[in-house]
Amino acid sequence: MVAKRGHALSCFARVSLFLFALTLSSASETTVQDIARKLKLGDNHLLRTEKKFKVFMENFGRRYSSREDYLQRLEIFAGNMLKAAENQALDPTAIHGVTQFSDLTEDEFQRLYTGVNGGFPWNNGAAGVAPPLELDGLPEDFDWREKGAVTEVKMQGKCGSCWAFSTTGSIEGANFIATGKLLNLSEQQLVDCDNQCDITGTKTCDNGCNGGLMTNAYNYLLQSGGLEEESSYPYTGEKGECKFDPGKVAVRITNFTNIPMDENQIAAYLVKHGPLAIGLNSIFMQTYIGGVSCPLICSKKWLNHGVLLVGYRAKGFSILRLGNKPYWIIKNSWGKRWGIDGYYKLCRGHGMCGMNTMVSAAMVTTQTQTKTSTQNYASY
């Protein structure tokens, strides 16, 4: 059963957030010493911000090592409140506000919680593009979660390993289609053992918590022989010594491919061949809380985050487009407290944030089928 989100913020609440955050712009530009002085003098705006900051600390279990560190994070928090209001104005069909990333700078957020390297569209090392599919008969709504092909939302932690989670999610789904079994596969094997470089010669290599590419990971798995389950190779959130055991391989892939950029084709491959690994620009995700994200401006030329496309819906209310518009359902790897129980809704049909420019999928077969050369999987 798919979890549902509570009611969206009212228009009044959104306007209030925007106006409140604007009052913090001066605070976000001050030094730590200025913040300490203003707190001592009882600056009302900053005191209100600090009250919200303390609620944030309580909600997300934050503790800081010194008073100076506390004041620095308060300054960053104030700036992120302003950023959330700016994002709300640029992305009015979504809800933006305080998240677990509200005490991080943009650089810290991208370094610790994203991880697609060399993220130029189509710079992802696949040998070719899958042929177009027939579009007739596609369902109006579709969700692989409802069919049992998607594992629980995972947590990559402070590690730029999103590429590994995007890869395993795609293979978990493909394996479910091939075998009828949903296995929880190991991201840690990829983090520890995969040093594969992009075949296009850009020298973009998979490098644990310092990033990677999903198609590099597919190449590694073709060469290594397969992927272990999470239970035999558990996630630690940091790069360690490679402990891959070929005798514990749970899933083998036989090939992989890029998916055409046309979003109707992406929908067709999603329905007919399972969840898809995608890269996108995560610039609006640091402050995302819910709703359908459809920002007025979002660069498609730089992708920095790997996620999993699991479904779509025909109707998501859109203020600016004056009606019900379709959206994608995207599984993230930041835990269930982020977004809509760990998921992201992104409007469909606009190539939003470059989500259609780095889409890939793996082909999976069972070990028995590999030995008998029987290809009983969703072929391309």
From TrEMBL:
Domain of life of the source: Eukaryota
Entries under CDD domains matching the protein: Peptidase_C1A
Alphabetically ordered keywords of this record: Disulfide bond, Glycoprotein, Hydrolase, Protease, Signal, Thiol protease, Zymogen
Entry's Gene Ontology BP terms: proteolysis
Span of the signal peptide: 1-27
Cathepsin propeptide inhibitor domain span: 53-109
Any one GO molecular-function label of the UniProt entry: cysteine-type peptidase activity
Any one cellular-component term (Gene Ontology): lytic vacuole
Keyword Cell membrane in record: no
Keyword Protease: yes
Family the UniProt entry places it in: Belongs to the peptidase C1 family.
Name assigned to this protein: Uncharacterized protein
Taxonomic lineage: Eukaryota, Viridiplantae, Streptophyta, Embryophyta, Tracheophyta
